[in-house]
Amino acid sequence: xxxxxxxxxxxxEQPVSLAEYQGKVLxxxxxxxxxxxxxxxxxxxxxxxxxxxxGFEILDFPCNxxxxxxxxxxxxxxxxxxxRYGVTFKxxxxxxxxxxxxxxxx
Length: 106
What we know:
Blueprint: E1 7-9, E2 15-17, E3 25-31, H1 40-51, E4 56-62, H2 74-85, E5 90-91
Parallel strand pairs: 3-4, 4-5
Antiparallel strand pairs: 1-2
């Protein structure tokens, strides 16, 4: 099984087959909007802008499991990312990266 065999939900909870990204370079990130590392969105966006036209994609999966640093809905998280950091790369539904509800992608 490869990453391209997975189907995940986007930030609007619609299914997205990761097969859509086959042939591209992927950076899959787990993020939190109220973490000390949140300014990383600025750097991630710069990376995306620099390399996207060469087939580079960032897939952002927020997670609220670590210190509850990604509270809010997908819409609220998206508003922070686009409004505060100018994010234009793809954001997905919040996932759990461990425990009973762990994402199969995680």
